[in-house]
Amino acid sequence: MGVKKTIASVVGVVAVVGLGFVGYKTWHNSHQTYTFQAPASTGMTGKTAIERGQYLAQAGDCVACHTAPGGKPFAGGLGLATPFGTIYATNITPDKDTGIGGWTDQQFMDAVRNGKGIHGENLYPAMPYNVYAKVSDQDLKDLKAYLDSVPAVHYDGPKTNLPFPYNIRLMMFGWNLLFLDTAPFKADPKQSDEWNRGAYLVEGLGHCTSCHTPKNLLGADDFGVHLQGAQLEGWLAPEITGNKRQGVGAWSNEELVDYLKTGANDKTVAAGPMAEAVHNSLQHMNKQDLTAMAVYLKSLPGSKDETQTLVNSQDVMARGKDIYLSNCAACHQSNGEGVRSMVPALKGNNALQASEPTNVLHVLMVGAQGAATDSNPTSAAMPEFGWKLTDQQMADVSTYVRNSWGNSAPEVTADQAAAARKLLSGDAALHNPATK
């Protein structure tokens, strides 16, 4: 009986603590105020609410998720693939039947910042309200003013229908209790105005964490490895902290701004989802805001930089070098320095030196298209080599470029190349040439 009483007591304490936590979080999230002023930009972001809102919509890349391929801007219908199923983006044009026409500012802010639909339903965090919670009232009101000004589109797109139990939206109540912090952005008085502006953009409307921070088993951001790189749709969104090898710590502010503004610099070229982000969003931001973002990102400590070297791999490096000189050096050059603003440098490339060879295998297998922007309209393309190189050859040349010209990263195996080929098999005819 004594043991049973002890167990019952422990369970009771846990239950009380759990209820207390739930109560506190509920109270905490419902009593946040948003009277703070967002850190101001030193660049012009618009004289009217609509002009400011357009700038903010571009900074938040709203069009990317809320526009289906071939569809009208902001009319929704795009399917967002998640580990839990496909979530469809909604119509955010001012159509009163299928969009957000007639929504009040408060209803809009509740949806964007608290994940609450107009009828009180819980939204899924594929819409990153957990980071938009940091956006000020005024910025969200300006954003809504802009969305109210775009052409209304009567379009009722596909409905999200996740498999059980993820289709139970009430479950999001628990998710929000665990992972949603509705506290407004708080400027750090120890940092400069520029740093705080950068933090506000990166951690809020820019939602950089949505791609560059790994997710836990429940799909929430793992802030223990904040902005330290994450797998995304067959790509690696690389580390963007001050880490000097795998992050952007070795880049100057100007180099990072050039990359965000034009999609390229003398170190690399944006491709994949990042090319889309540059095209839709970042190229439209003023250089003062981009510089602020660069200052903030480079200040983050990032992952522990553990340089890894190869052991007993001279044969691998020799084979990889032969493949590189025959297939890659014409564009990337024998010294790995590439061509500024067109062909990414491999020497010192941060994403190339990531612990996982995701990106190098991706572009080798199916190729890639660089970002095309107003200031850098010449967008070079990387041809695909999946039809030509075997899994072992893919591994050898990947290992070579990841460990030449001062680079250092783990050896790539044929099994890793085979896994990448299988993952990307829907994008191209990626049969291993060795099996033909």
Automatic annotation (TrEMBL):
TM segment ranges: 7-27
Cofactor(s) in the UniProt record: heme c
Chain residues that bind heme c 2: C208, C211, H212
Manner of cofactor binding, per the entry note: Binds 3 heme c groups covalently per subunit.
A single cellular component GO annotation: plasma membrane
Pfam family, one: Cytochrom_C
Boundaries of every Cytochrome c domain copy: 48-151, 193-301, 315-405
Signal sequence extent: none
Compartment(s) of residence: Cell membrane
Top-level lineage group: Bacteria
Binding locations of heme c 1: C62, C65, H66
Positions contributing to heme c 3 binding: C328, C331, H332
GO molecular function list: electron transfer activity; heme binding; iron ion binding; oxidoreductase activity, acting on CH-OH group of donors
Keyword tags: Cell membrane, Electron transport, Heme, Iron, Membrane, Metal-binding, Repeat, Signal, Transmembrane, Transmembrane helix, Transport
PANTHER family (alphabetical): ALCOHOL DEHYDROGENASE CYTOCHROME C SUBUNIT, BLL4482 PROTEIN-RELATED
Name of the protein in its database record: Alcohol dehydrogenase
Native organism: Rouxiella badensis
